[in-house]
């Protein structure tokens, strides 16, 4: 007996009811919120038919709201909405995430494909998840991923990721090569149990791990004598002879107990100075650097980098309560390193010592607390005159409210000004009441500032500043130059100097690439590929064994595996491809006169090039939020239609009107429209990146 399906009255009722003109508005709204608008197919219920002669069309599915029925969906899924990868990573593991395509109420299976070095595509995942972790092999590889969603009716189109660079360079297992390092760790542990540690914003790079950068999170405690990697800005193991009689720690009076400043930020380099960013922390902050673990000083700098349209002030107070100094012998390094690792002109030994002990050791620290408040507001919507006026108002008000001699004065005028200017605050602290900076807002900044001052005490002091001293040659190698024993990071062409240059270029890169999204524009693809190249260049300076490839920006050539073009000088490529948005304007005056007739006005006021676009933050009247202003001197148009304006194309204002005079025997036989259009916009322009000398 064959089973057929028929429409039932119970199934038709929802359809009839939803189409009823008497349906209440709230009921319609509730119905619409339950599902997106779609064709509602009739419900069909199985009915047993005894006669085999009945001839009817048999439906293919049960009612399910439009996506399918008991036998499955009607359509393949939609294309996945997104797929994300890190732009660059030097880690051994990374993650790819995506969103599934619309399955219309049915589950979808996702297929992920991988492309390596622009080669063929291979499937690397087939399942119902939306992410996958990958383990990188040693070396450098350019990766790209695509994903599609599938069901029983087929598969969607592909969603492609941007290209990403995997640059994993595993470090040697030093503990397997040097058995004495375990003894060094034991000595260091015993030493650290007998002296004070200092809370800081630093990170610790653990040489015991095989990962490229096995860093802790920001906020590591350190000890005087700890090693320090000047390029990565990270703590290393204590490698000094802590049992030597001349190894002594003393307490002193800080030279400047309190410093307080309110400063206008001239540029990002100036910002680094105001935020007490050391040379080591300032280098190398492309976007994905944060995932590698960065020091607190570097983090607060990265978070505050912005373009030239952002007005910034830094309010900074530093309390120095104690100063601690380390004195060592003339031969400070633990003799185990001299006897078992260091050897003149041995590049592997130099690299191994640096990876374990760093470039220098910490020999002093000021203990206390510091609070950094970065006040920022976007000046895109202001003219130059208005910008300077607002900047002056904010600077004066901050100076009135905050001071170093006591609590900040509560001031409603400051709160109103911060609200009117839409000021944001980035707060960072070293020491003081834990977690206070994370809760600072424009509405409570004065209260939080006072809480920080009042809540700072000896129980929450931290190292607000520290100093380092370069390692001294062991006396056994006193006849050799320093560079014969240690990896040499110094000099105008040394890795530290090169990293400063690349770090400065990376900041300029951020300044050029970030504003596109601020103006609701797609960021050029050149920004992503160039970030990959800059990160690759900087990683050659981070890793001791890659220092041969740590080159000056004028000499660095992209390799065969390149996100941009292989075999080119990267600096030249950046200058030719990564453009800077510059403000520009155009204005035109028009004079239209008609006598006994009519005219269709179709005027265009355009910026210099088709790549330019109107500034959505500027404009007045009909051009508000569109970037233009219309100044009408005369409009005498008895029979004409109204005037209209629009941005078309993206770099032009199109002004239209229809001027039509009356017949001569009716009186007025003229029509006039005399006006001026001012258009403000931005143009992507080539400008050489500045290299720090």
- Helical proportion? 10-25%
The separation of the N and C termini measures 90 Å
Mean pLDDT: 83
Quick one: overall form?
globular
Structural class: alpha+beta
Instruction: Detail the poorly predicted runs.
Output: 1-67, 210-217, 279-295
Biggest pleated sheet:
7 strands, mixed
DSSP strand count: 31
Total helical segments: 17
Radius of gyration: 34 Å
Beta-strand residue percentage: 25-35%
Could you walk me through the main structural features you see in this protein, from its secondary elements to its overall organization?
The longest helix has 19 residues. With 693 residues, this protein is α+β, with helices and mostly antiparallel strands. Strands 6, 8, 9, 11, 12, 13 and 14 form a seven-stranded mixed beta sheet that branches. Strands 19, 20, 21, 22, 23 and 24 form a six-stranded antiparallel beta sheet that branches. Helix 10 runs antiparallel to helix 11 and helix 14 runs antiparallel to helix 16. The protein starts with a strand and ends in an 8-residue tail after the last strand.
């Amino acid at each position: 007996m064959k089973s057929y399906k028929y429409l039932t009255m119970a199934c038709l009722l929802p359809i009839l009811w939803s189409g009823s003109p008497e349906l209440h508005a709230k009921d319609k709204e509730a119905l619409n919120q339950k599902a997106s608008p779609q064709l509602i197919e009739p419900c069909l219920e199985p009915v047993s038919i005894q006669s085999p002669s009945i001839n009817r069309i048999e439906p293919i599915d049960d009612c399910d709201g439009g996506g399918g029925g008991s036998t499955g969906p009607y359509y393949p899924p939609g294309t996945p909405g997104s797929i994300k990868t890190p732009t660059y990573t030097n880690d051994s593991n990374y993650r790819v995430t995506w969103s599934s395509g619309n399955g219309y109420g049915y589950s979808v299976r996702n297929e992920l494909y991988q492309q390596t070095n622009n080669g063929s595509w291979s499937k690397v995942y087939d399942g119902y998840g939306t992410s996958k972790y990958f383990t990188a092999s040693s070396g450098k590889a350019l990766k790209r991923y695509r994903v599609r969603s599938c069901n029983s009716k087929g598969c969607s189109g592909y969603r492609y990721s941007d290209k990403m660079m995997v640059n994993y360079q595993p470090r040697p297992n030093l503990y397997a090569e040097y058995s004495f390092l375990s003894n060094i760790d034991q000595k260091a542990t015993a030493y650290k149990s007998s002296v004070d540690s200092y809370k800081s914003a630093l990170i610790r790079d653990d040489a015991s791990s095989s990962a490229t950068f096995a860093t802790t999170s920001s906020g590591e405690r350190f000890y005087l004598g700890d090693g320090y990697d000047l390029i990565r800005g990270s703590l290393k193991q204590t490698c000094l002879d802590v049992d030597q009689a001349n190894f002594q720690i003393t307490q002193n009076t800080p030279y400047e107990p309190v410093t307080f400043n309110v400063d206008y930020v001239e540029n990002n380099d100036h910002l680094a100075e105001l935020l007490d960013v050391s040379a080591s922390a300032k280098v190398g902050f492309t976007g994905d650097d944060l995932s590698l673990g960065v020091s607190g000083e570097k983090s607060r700098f990265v978070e505050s980098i912005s373009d030239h349209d952002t007005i910034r002030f830094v309010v900074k107070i530093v309390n120095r309560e104690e100063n601690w100094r380390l004195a060592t012998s003339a031969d400070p390094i633990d003799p185990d390193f001299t006897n078992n690792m260091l050897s003149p002109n041995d590049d592997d030994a130099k690299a191994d010592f640096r990876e374990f002990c760093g470039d220098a050791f910490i020999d002093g620290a000021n203990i206390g607390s510091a609070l950094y408040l970065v006040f920022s507001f976007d000046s895109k919507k202001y003219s130059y005159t208005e910008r300077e006026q607002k900047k002056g108002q904010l600077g004066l008000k901050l100076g009135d409210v905050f001071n170093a001699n006591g609590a900040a004065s509560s001031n409603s005028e400051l709160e109103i000004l911060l609200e009117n200017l839409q000021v944001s605050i980035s707060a960072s602290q070293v020491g003081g009441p834990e977690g206070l900076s994370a809760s600072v807002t424009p509405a409570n900044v004065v209260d939080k500032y006072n809480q920080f001052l009042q809540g700072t005490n000896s129980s929450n002091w931290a190292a607000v500043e520290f100093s380092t001293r370069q390692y001294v040659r062991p006396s056994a190698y006193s006849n050799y130059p320093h560079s014969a024993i240690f990896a040499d990071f110094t000099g105008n062409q040394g890795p530290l100097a090169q990293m400063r240059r690349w770090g400065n270029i990376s900041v300029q890169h951020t300044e050029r690439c970030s504003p596109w999204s601020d103006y609701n524009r797609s960021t050029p693809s050149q920004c992503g590929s160039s970030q990959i190249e800059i990160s690759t260049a900087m990683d050659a300076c981070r890793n001791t064994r890659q220092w041969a490839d740590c080159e000056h920006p004028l000499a660095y050539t992209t390799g065969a595996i390149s996100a941009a073009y292989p075999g080119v000088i990267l600096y030249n490529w950046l200058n030719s491809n990564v453009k800077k948005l510059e403000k520009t304007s155009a204005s035109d005056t028009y004079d239209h006169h008609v006598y006994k007739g009519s005219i269709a006005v179709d005027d265009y006021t355009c910026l210099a090039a088709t790549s330019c676009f109107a500034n959505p933050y500027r404009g007045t009247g009909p051009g508000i939020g569109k970037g233009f202003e219309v100044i009408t001197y005369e409009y005498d148009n008895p029979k004409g239609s109204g005037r209209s304006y629009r941005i078309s194309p993206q770099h032009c204002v199109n002004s239209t009107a229809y001027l039509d005079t009356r017949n001569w025997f009716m009186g007025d036989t003229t029509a006039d429209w005399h006006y001026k259009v001012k258009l403000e916009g931005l143009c992507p322009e080539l400008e050489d990146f500045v290299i720090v000398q």
